[in-house]
Every structure is written in C-alpha cells, then in structure tokens.
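User: Can you model how coenzyme A sits in this protein?
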Amino acid sequence: MDDVSIRAASHEDVRKLIEDRYDRHHLLDHLHHRRGILLLALVGEGLAGHLFLRFAPPEEPELRDGLPGVPLLQHLRVMERHQRSGVARRLLAEAENRLRALGHGRVALGVHPDNHRAIRLYEDLSFTAWRDRHLATFREHVLEDGNTVRVQEPCLVLVKQLAPPSG
Ligand SMILES: CC(C)(COP(=O)(O)OP(=O)(O)OC[C@H]1O[C@@H](n2cnc3c(N)ncnc32)[C@H](O)[C@@H]1OP(=O)(O)O)[C@@H](O)C(=O)NCCC(=O)NCCS
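Assistant: Here's the modeled complex, given as structure tokens:
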C-alpha cells in the first residue's frame, strides 16, 4: 500500500495501461472530450486502479437538474490483485482533496444497488443516498468489434458533503 502512487493520467497512459475494453473506451472518450480528470493508482509502473472525476454535466437529465455543478466520480476500479489493500480509499481521498481545492462543496456518484462491496466503502466514507428511489440509467457495453450497446441499469446515487480545505 505504501508503494502506491497516484497521479493524473494522459490519453497515452490509458492506451498503455488500461486493458479492460469498457474502461478503455469510455476513459479515452472522456479525456478526448475533456470531461474531467482521470486518476491512476500505480505500483511501480503497473496499474493498481483508476477513478474518473467528471466535471462535465452528467448524461442523465435528473442528475443534471437535481445536482447542478456537482462533480461525479465514475469508473472506480481496483485491479483484482491490488484489492482490499486500501487503493480505492487512496483514490477517493485524492479525488476529494482535489475537489475541495477547486472549491467544490459536494461530490456525487452512482453505484449499482447490488454492488455491496462498493456501497460499504462509500458509506464508510460518509456518502449518503441522494434520494431513496433508484435512477434508471444506461450502461454502454463495448463489443469486441468496437460497437456499443446500451443496457438499462438501476443506479443508486450517493452524495457527500466536502469540508473546505484546512489551512
Ligand atoms: C469496490 C472496489 C473499488 C474496492 O476497492 P479496494 O481497493 O479493494 O477497496 P479498499 O481496499 O480501499 O477497501 C475499502 C473498503 O471497501 C469495502 N470493501 C472492499 N472490498 C470488499 C469486499 N471484498 N467485501 C466487503 N467489503 C469490501 C470495505 O469497507 C473496505 O474497508 P476495510 O478493508 O477496512 O474493511 C473494488 O472491489 C473494485 O474495483 N470492484 C470492481 C469495480 C467496482 O465495483 N467499482 C465500483 C463502481 S461504483
């Protein structure tokens, strides 16, 4: 865990380090459209995890209207062999620090209601439900030939209040 470093990523980093077809496709698209910052957790030169901080308005109209100007955390993933050693916590802490420094008072994210591991992590970090009702959203799967298909998915939206930076 001590040898984990976190830094913002370039397109080149994504091409070199991110093998998962879904993450690679969407992260390259987000960076291309300058929707936010991609944080990478690295152990040496190897990828341990990633998290995207989205400043562009969300795709879902309900989120655009209900949480205007609130950045969204997306694409949190920790590689299997690095899981359960605090990498997600480190990525989330770095994201929160950066957002506070930029003057944001709140952050939001969406999680599948069955993803108990992730929900436990977020609740532990003081994220709370934005509303009880799930949001109907779409997950855009990337096929082997590069085409995408949209599959409807429920999403639990969580928010967190960010304290102003100290000092
Ligand atoms: C969810 C995920 C990001 C957690 O990453 P991680 O680096 O293993 O998490 P951490 O080591 O920082 O653990 C933080 C907390 O998360 C929770 N957690 C993580 N893995 C867990 C597991 N297998 N079972 C139960 N709780 C778990 C625990 O509360 C844990 O705290 P603890 O270790 O003190 O009990 C990782 O499992 C993952 O990449 N999953 C697949 C992708 C995903 O679901 N992303 C979230 C999308 S919203």
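A couple of observations from the model: The pocket of coenzyme A is lined by residues 76-78, 83-89, 111, 115, 117-118, 120-121, 124 (CB under 6 Å). Residues 4-161 form a domain with the Aminopeptidase fold (CATH 3.40.630.30).
User: Helpful, thanks.
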